[in-house]
Amino acid sequence: MSAASWASLQAAAGPVSRETFERLVEFESVFQKWNRRINLAAQSTQDDVWRRHILDSAQLARIKPEAKRWADLGSGGGFPGLVLAFLLAERDGASIDLVESNRKKASFLQAIVGQFNLPARVIARRIDEAYPFVSTPQIVTARALASLPVLLELSAPWLTASARGLFHKGRDYRTEVAESAQRWSFDLLEHASATDAHGVILELSDLRQLT
């Protein structure tokens, strides 16, 4: 049963309208139906989609409330990309590109974007083939996609050109940061997760490859 509440959404994401909250509640219901058919998220999280996925995704909006151009890599079941699209609908001129190579998942993303008229584009390509198609982002996101060294490799074309990365990571993130520092220099901010006591959101900027 959903534990959705307007207060929990605002605690995670910052100021959010009642209308956006209600749209996300409807999205949660639609997601559950799709998830039973094409396995968009682990079945173990089926009973806690609101906190484990929606609120966990929504907290990125609080970290960068001024950003309008976003790109989400490996969007999968829409976390964080689709959730951010609902929130970005409240920001005039904001949009997000959702990069997903799996055809079934890309079809799900496109269906949700169309159903809710979200400010998002689905780019159904591998990440390393998507660079020419992604609008120049200010923020690049990824959740449960790959280790940090791999994420930096995939997002380097944007992060070396002034974009910032916001990446969900778990308790072992320090090891991944240390591995990444062997190849890259970067500025790093750690944001405690609003939904996971052991999780963080890593904010990376000024990425440069070491010579």
UniProtKB/TrEMBL annotation:
It catalyses: guanosine(527) in 16S rRNA + S-adenosyl-L-methionine = N(7)-methylguanosine(527) in 16S rRNA + S-adenosyl-L-homocysteine. The keyword Protease does not apply. Transmembrane segments: none annotated. One of its GO terms (biological process) is methylation. The keyword Endoplasmic reticulum does not apply. NCBIfam families: rsmG_gidB. This is Ribosomal RNA small subunit methyltransferase G. It comes from Mesorhizobium ventifaucium.
